[in-house]
Amino acid sequence: MAVLRPPALLLALVVSELHCLPWFINISESQGPGSVLQSFSFNCTSHKPTLELVRVKPSTTFFNLPIPHGTVHLPQVTLSSSARLDALAVNHYELQLRLTCGKHVTEGPLYVDVHRDPDYSPCAGRFASPAGEIIQVRETVTPGAQLYTLLLPGLEPQRAQISINSTQDPPYFPGPFSINGQGWLLAPSQGLKGQAKKVFQLQILVTFGQNRSCHRMLKVKVLPAPSSQISFLGQAPNITVPEDLAPGSKVVQVRARGFNVRYEIVSPVPCPLFSIGQDGVIRTTAPLELAQARGAAVTRLQVKAYERLMPWAGVDLDLTVSVRSVNRWPPRCLPAMLVTEIPETTPVGTVLNTFTCADPDSPGSALDYELRFHSPPGPASLCLRDRALEVNATLDCDTPGVCFQHAASILVLDGGQPLMTTEVPVLVMVTPVNEFSPACVPHTFRIREDAGPYTLLGSVVGTDKDYPHNSIEYYVSSGPTAFSVDRLSGEVHLLGSLDYELQTLYKLTVLLTDHGQDQDPTHRRSGSCTITIEVEDVNDYAPECQPPFQELTVYAPLGRSVEVTKVSCWVPQEPQRLAFSYSIVGGNSQSRFSLRGPILVHDNIMLGPPWPEQPRTYELLIRVADAGPSIPHLSTTATVIVHLVPWSTSTVATRTHRATVPSMMTPLLVTDMEAFWQPEPWFVVVLTVTSALFLLALGWLFGKEAVLLRSALPSFPPIHLSSGTGRDYLFNTLTGARRWL
């Protein structure tokens, strides 16, 4: 068990319990090197205790920890020779202490708060004592070497000026001492060789503030060269360490031959990066990050080894510590990820983003950039030029499978060992742009005038260069209301009825509007085309002949053709229809009649039998049909009854008459027309059914009245008819009643 016991008027410390830690002390910034900050007393039975200063935050060399001896120890935490406290710069330090007593190890912090001293003067401390400050140097000191630091914290903001105003005349002075702008007292340029055991008194004048100054004495005592046999063992002058060494790590251990040897770093002072222990081990006191610690790449150390009883009889060793860069961190990039959208009309050469990357291990070093494609693989529409991601080729979304997402990554490589890389994901989404307006080719459709509603005329086929190509809607912008266009398919349908006689041609303007072809759903384009609809004529009415029935008597001479009659037909509802075809469809036995257009002709050119000797009657059926381009061809039938009377003469007379008779004879036509009524078939059916129903109803009515009458008449005795007169009377009566019924 270890117990720390402070001397009188000091803080008591017991370290047997961990909850006794930490400790807090307050000191003034006016305290200079050698000042005792804290004293400890502890007793560690059966073991040799050790009290170590593990680390200081923030890192500094202002604090020393002497090593005690014996079983009772009074270690003290003091300010080192390089201590220059300044409350404005750092007002709080944390010293981590470690007490080891056998196997028991206890750690705890010692917090040191530095407060401002308004009366603190740069001439305070040992420098302000009447006897002045006494420093000891060896006669073997390097000419011009730093001997003492005069500039204390607080002088810089006051712009203090320090100078030596005492005389330094030879031969006592080998040369003048000097003070540089940093407040360092420097040895004469001639050195101090042969000046052993001399004491040089220097009057120092410090001027600061507004007409403020002070005079202080500084004595430099020159010690003879060491006569001891202390010397460094073989040690390599150059040491290389990696920059990732943690504070407190061992750099190198130096060893000197001598009795009770002590070590200290005499240059540089202060030494912020390295410290040396009494065992000669040089350790790091701060991170050696080359990116943060300026000047840490190469540090030249001057280590002094001396015997404890003869500190002036020391020997110096020059070491060069080089810090090797360690590639521990990959490059860091901004942005760390790129996700962007660009329209397909983005010009070639457009910069999408510029990547800024830096190597934390070596700021400012050059980095290599590589663009790697993932989807689609291989070179695409993007390229990387000098850290800038640009559009490399024309982007097009109007071809299927072209407008997609470009997935890539930018690989950033540093030049360190080992090689470290950073991959920046890149996702570029190309969005479609509605660039083109839809269009359609003017077209002509034909439709029969008797077509019914919803008849399909055809389809309007629109085209659009934007993808998808079939994203078109169709509308009727102007035109007749008898037609409609399907919004999605473009099919043209008939809505109403048509009449060729009223209108034969229609003009329909179809508006085409695209959709779904742009990132902005409201950005739409439109076009139009004109559709022509021609109405085809359809025969609505059959021809009518006037009269529809003719009966003629024709006297036909032998060997002559006679015009019988002319069939006169037309369509009353369509008077413009004049083309008809005529044909004999019945009654033309022996083909004695023919038609020349609408004219019926009797052909009698036969010279021999069978020439009819008696008049003969022919009932001819003539079919009259319209012969125009319209379909269907409707027809009607005209009836012509011809009573043919042969007209013959004697042979000689006939022959003579034929020779003299003119070529054309005018026959005598007798027309006999009879009027008759031919009811429609439906009328006959209706009349028959109505009469039958009427008779059935009448029979049912009289049958019911006869039953009522029989029940109402009184009962009569049976009548016996014996005579013929009575029987005749009864028979006549019943017969008359039946007729009446």
UniProtKB/TrEMBL annotation:
InterPro entries referenced in this protein's UniProt entry, alphabetically: Cadherin-like_dom, Cadherin-like_sf
GO molecular function annotations of the record: calcium ion binding
Gene Ontology CC terms, in alphabetical order: plasma membrane
SUPFAM superfamilies: Cadherin-like
Matches recorded under SMART domains: CA (SM00112)
Transmembrane segments: 682-702
Stretches assigned to the Cadherin domain: 334-440, 439-549
CDD domains: Cadherin_repeat
Cellular compartment(s): Membrane
GO BP of this protein: homophilic cell adhesion via plasma membrane adhesion molecules
Gene3D superfamilies per record: Cadherins (2.60.40.60)
Pfam families in UniProt: Cadherin
Keywords for this protein: Calcium, Membrane, Signal, Transmembrane, Transmembrane helix
Signal peptide coordinates: 1-20
Stored PANTHER family: FAT ATYPICAL CADHERIN-RELATED (PTHR24026), PROTOCADHERIN FAT 4 (PTHR24026:SF126)
Name this protein carries in UniProt: Cadherin related family member 4
